[in-house]
Write a structure and sequence with these properties.
- This protein is mostly helical.
- It contains 6 helices and no strands.
- Helix 4 packs across helix 6.
- The relative contact order is 0.11.
């Protein structure tokens, strides 16, 4: 027994996670707090992606002057790209975002495609959170 474990035993500290792990092993199911925490994380993530989608559509149409069908198509393309490249290396994601900004400069819509690159990042983070919780 290490010195830290001895001190914890003397003080009377109880490892709550160990008790939950013992319950998991016996029953084979996850504790209710963990399930609720996962559900809350997923709900929050979905809400954040939805708000960012609406924000991109609003900013794209009002401030960037891009037509609504084109903005919606970019939102869908960003989601498909993020899902398709979800398990790729970090440098590839950085390259995709940089390519979007360069395309924006070339096609005279730099602000809109910079916002689209930021939206791509948000969707990637949301996918990573789904992967951690799922």
């Amino acid at each position: 027994m290490s010195g830290l474990e001895r001190k914890e035993k003397e003080i009377g500290l109880v490892d709550l996670n160990k008790q939950e792990t013992d319950k998991e092993k016996k029953t084979g199911e996850m504790p209710k707090r963990t399930v609720e925490r996962q559900k809350n994380t997923i709900r929050t993530t979905v809400a954040a992606v939805a708000v960012c989608s609406l924000l991109l559509v609003w900013l794209g149409t009002k401030f960037c002057g891009v037509s609504l069908p084109l903005v919606c198509a970019v939102v869908v393309i960003e989601i498909v790209l993020a899902v398709a490249l979800n398990d790729s290396k970090l440098w590839l994601h950085i390259g995709v975002m940089a390519a979007e900004v360069v395309m924006g400069i070339v096609f005279k819509h730099a602000l809109f495609l910079a916002l689209a690159a930021a939206y791509y990042f948000v969707v990637l983070v949301a996918l990573k959170l789904f992967g951690l919780e799922g």
